[in-house]
Amino acid sequence: MNAGVILAAGDSKRMGFPKQIAEIKNKPLLEAVIEKVSSNFESSSVVLGFENEFIQEKINFFNSNILINENWREGIISSIRTALFFYQEQKQIENLIFFLGDQPEVKDEVIFALQNSELDNSKVLIPQYRYKLGFPVLIP
User: Fold this and answer.
1) Cβ distance 87 to 26 under 8 Å?
2) CA-CA distance, 110 to 107, in Å (whole number)?
3) Is the dihedral of CA 116, 89, 42, 22 positive or negative?
4) Are residues 69 and 101 in contact, defined by beta-carbon separation less than 8 angstroms?
5) pLDDT tens profile 14-43
6) CA neighbor of 34 nearest in space, from 8, 69, 53, 12
7) What is the C-alpha to C-alpha distance for residues 121 and 113, in angstroms, rounded to an integer?
8) How would you classify the pairing of strands 137-139 and 128-129?
């Protein structure tokens, strides 16, 4: 089984307020991503850091786990590490597929392709868009 993980721990310096609660299509940005991910995975988690208590008050997390990255200032790798630690003992989870908390328009076809890719359990899978590598990323 695969699990979806949303990385949303950053401080949104350029916006001046938590980007996760910015409105898009009449809902908070992060909530739109959570809705997309939780509808495609049996298990999903959201990694929060900066202003996590405030964000938790504003967002519907559906059935997703909330993981707190106390080291969010270290960057995205610390959020990936937080999720890997959380899932390391859950033997039913074979792969983690990481999403960014500010990209709600990931196409269902991309999610389906990642979930149904045949890997040898040793390769990270990174989609390419217009010659650039991007998210979501699958880590076995």
Assistant:
1) no
2) 5
3) negative
4) no
5) 877 788 988 888 999 999 999 999 999 999
6) 8
7) 16
8) unpaired
pLDDT for 101 equals 93
Q: Given the structure tokens 């559906």, which residue do they identify? A: 62
β-partners of residue 129 are 132
Over the chain, what is the mean pLDDT? 90
pTM exceeding 0.90: yes
Q: Cα separation of 125 and 95, whole Å?
A: 10
Instruction: Report yes or no: 56 and 34 within 8 Å, Cβ to Cβ.
Output: no
Cis, peptide link before residue 136, omega less than 30° from 0: yes
Q: Which residues of 37-73 are buried (b: 16+ CB within 10 A; e: fewer)?
A: bbebbebbbbbbbbbbeebeeebebeebeebebeebe
* Proportion of the chain above pLDDT 90, given as a percent: 57
Q: What is the pLDDT of residues 113-133, one digit of tens each?
A: 888 877 666 788 887 888 888
- Alpha-carbon distances, residue 75 vs 20, 27, 70, 71, 109 (angstroms): 16, 26, 11, 8, 29
Tokens of 27: 């809902």
